[in-house]
Amino acid sequence: MGVERYGYQYIAGQLDQAVVPEPSTWALLALGLPLIGVMARRRRRT
Predict the structure, then answer these.
(1) pLDDT one-digit tens code per residue, 7-26
(2) For residues 32, 33, 35 and 39, what is the CA-based torsion angle, rounded to 10 degrees?
């Protein structure tokens, strides 16, 4: 059962759920942020 309002569809009784990132997402973040820092530091030196 849905209600159309302002171009969006709201479904009665649906609850929003929190999105939890997967472990691979955390791993990419943990590897990527230090790499960006190293690249910025090298760029500043030259």
Answers:
(1) 555 555 555 666 788 999 99
(2) 130
| Owner of token pair 């759920």 | 17
Q: How many residues does the chain have?
A: 46
Residue 29's Cβ-side half-sphere holds a number of Cα atoms within 13 Å equal to 6
Q: Identify the DSSP state of 13.
A: T
Structure tokens at 38: 């190293």
Q: Residue 40: what are its φ and ψ, rounded to 5°?
A: -65, -40
CA distance 12 to 20: 24
Q: What CA–CA distance (Å, rounded) separates 36 from 38?
A: 5
